[in-house]
Amino acid sequence: MKILGIDTALGACSAALVADGRVLAHAFEEMQRGHAEALAPMVDGLMRQAGCAYSKLDRIGVTTGPGTFTGQRVGIAFARALALALKVPAIGVTTLDAMAEAALEKITDADWAIVAADAKRGEIYLSARTRAGETFIAPELLPLSDAPERIKKARAETGSVALAGTAAEALMPLLREHALIPIDSLVRQPDAVFVARLAADANAGPPPKPLYLRPPDAKLPDPNR
User: Fold this and answer.
1) Are 18 and 193 a contacting pair, CB within 8 Å?
2) What HEC string does the chain produce?
3) What is the pLDDT of residue 107?
4) pLDDT-derived band of residue 220, with 50, 70 and 90 as boundaries?
5) pTM for this predicted structure
């Protein structure tokens, strides 16, 4: 099975072509803006690099969020359009699940991973999952200071845990106070390789939609004013 994975939801743009778990081509570039302009050339380049025609793809994996309002929509629109044209499933994967998988690949002696992405305003996007793929904290938005209690409530155990995300360093000392041993994986952004791998194991369903945990800051004008 050949899967194209893409991510534009946070602070990077990445694409990967994966076949039965093996990476055939991969591109990753950190960026805060410009995802819309970068994505299509990046995908086209790696498909050429792998010598793979688009018609050979079996499914498309894409991050749904949480992330930036524009970034989420760029990747999802691209994935849905390509999947429709190719008549293959588009599979949504959360940014936090993708980072958790990457962290667990790096930290081999941890049985579970916590992902904490900076959501600004003293808040984080938090998620946690086991190496076996059980997500016991689905992505949620909460104050950084509340995260340790939320984690302990969901999984009352001590020991080593892989940590990922842009708020990982801020969360580490708080976790140590709760008898956890956080090991920083240094994973800070989702990578399309892990999006593709997770999409390979997921059941196909409705087309992916953006996962918004916070309303967009921009407001449409009130038509009644």
Assistant:
1) yes
2) CEEEEEECCCCEEEEEEEECCEEEEEEEEECCCCHHHHHHHHHHHHHHHHCCCHHHCCEEEEEEECCCHHHHHHHHHHHHHHHHHHCCCEEEEEHHHHHHHHHHHHCCCCCEEEEEEECCCCEEEEEEEECCCCEEEEEEEEEHHHHHHHHHHHCCCCEEEEEECCCHHHHHHHHHCCCEEEEECCCCCCCHHHHHHHHHHCCCCCCCCCCCCCCCCCCCCCCCC
3) 97
4) very low
5) 0.93
